[in-house]
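Problem 12. The chain below contains 156 residues. Write out its predicted structure in token notation.
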Amino acid sequence: MTDTTAQLEPHVKQAIAGFIEQIPFNKLLGIELLSISEEAVEMRLPMRPELVGNFLHGILHGGVTATILDVAGGLMALVGATLKSQHLSNSERMARLSKLGTIDLRVDYLRPGRGTAFIARATPLRSGNKVAVIRCELHALEGDLIAVGTGTYLCG
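Solution.
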């Protein structure tokens, strides 16, 4: 992040975590938030039969891979936007944060999605006033790097 002096208060972390849990699709997939900070966001996705894309090999669906990377990236962008809008009133901040959305997402699939669970980690590459660029990685719980992504997000 560009502003290393700003920090997330515990109640702000809780509000951001609550935001991600309000999205029905995230619940459907079973995405769990592991950690949230100014430097990184980590999420866990348990493997389930409903998430398989290649039924012959039991491999995670590519769309699920892209989704978890996008959710982690979007949450990291939300963290940056929250830090940059702390000087605004609550209504102004909510108006700005409500505009957050994905502009572009590039995913490189490196290995088949095999594993009992997956960990997504997102870190900011650039966090500007209007746009954030976020780097994401998806690892199998067993350690293999499954995919990487770079997302560009509108932040207000």
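Discussion. Residues 8 and 38 are 7 Å apart (CA to CA). Students who got a different answer should revisit the alignment rule from Section 12.3.
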